[in-house]
């Protein structure tokens, strides 16, 4: 902020004529090169002379005071307008962020979470039924049908997950879902390999990947509670 004439003369706006003259003489002595080489400042001397010329003349001082008052009023109005604008901007930004969050929850999180349930929930029962006789064609066909359903649900979940960018506030939730979907994709493939060669290694690996995916889904559910 540029100093006004009162600041230049180191006085208040209520200073008397005597105080103005006294301060002027003291400053001239301080900054004039003929009186003090160490503190000499020709530019400051110019500012001091201009300030004194205005403030020492009653008419010019009244005019200057009105100008200062109007400038101060304008500055206050400007600051008030800027504060109001910033408030509305922050409020609008907050409303926009909340709207984006609600949209993501409705269009992404809820449907993806539901699809994950359809994949994960039946596994234990499907494994138990198949374990009665893995070589029974009917039981194996039912298990393969379940895996086909899993592929369908997983594809839907992946498309839904990518349909809308996640808000920053749910980045952790989105990360859990992302890794959950990846684990399920690998798990489905391992379980499918088991149906082709009856190698228990693929069965156990597939189950473990499903277990990890279920844990990631639970972590996403816990994380979402902290932002809703």
Short description, anyone?
The protein is mainly α and 228 residues long. The chain is 80% helix and 0% strand.
Give structural notes.
Helix content is 80%, strand content 0%. The chain folds into two domains: 83 residues, Orthogonal Bundle (Helix Hairpins); 130 residues, no CATH class. The longest helix has 63 residues. The mean pLDDT is 89. The chain has 228 residues and is mainly α.
Question: Share of helix among residues?
Answer: over 70%
- Number of H- or I-type helical stretches: 8
Global Rg: 39 Å
* Category by helix and strand content: mainly alpha
Number of domains: 2
Beta-strand portion reads under 5%
Span from first to last CA? Answer: 45 Å
Sheet having the most strands? none
List low-confidence stretches: none
What is the averaged pLDDT score?
89
User: SSE order, as H and E?
Assistant: HHHHHHHH
Rough shape? rod-shaped
Strand segment count: 0
């Amino acid at each position: 902020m540029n100093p006004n004439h009162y600041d230049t003369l180191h006085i208040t706006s209520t200073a008397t004529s005597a105080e103005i003259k006294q301060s002027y003489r003291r400053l001239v002595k301080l900054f004039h090169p003929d009186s003090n080489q160490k503190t000499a400042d020709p530019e400051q001397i110019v500012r001091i002379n201009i300030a004194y010329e205005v403030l020492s003349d009653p008419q010019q001082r009244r005019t200057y005071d009105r100008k200062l008052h109007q400038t101060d009023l304008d500055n206050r109005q400007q600051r008030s307008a800027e504060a109001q604008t910033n408030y509305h901007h922050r409020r609008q930004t907050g409303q926009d962020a909340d709207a984006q969050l609600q949209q993501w929850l409705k269009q992404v999180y809820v449907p993806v979470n539901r699809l994950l349930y359809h994949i994960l929930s039946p596994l234990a029962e499907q494994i138990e039924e198949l374990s009665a006789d893995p070589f029974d064609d009917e039981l194996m066909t039912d298990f393969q049908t379940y895996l086909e359903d899993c592929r369908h649900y997983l594809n839907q979940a992946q498309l839904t997950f990518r349909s809308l960018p996640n808000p920053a506030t749910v980045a952790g939730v989105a990360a859990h879902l992302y890794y959950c979907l990846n684990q399920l994709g690998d798990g489905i493939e391992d379980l499918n390999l088991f149906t082709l060669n009856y190698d228990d290694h693929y069965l156990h690996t597939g189950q473990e990947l499903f277990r990890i995916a279920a844990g990631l889904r639970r972590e996403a559910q816990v994380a979402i509670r902290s932002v809703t």
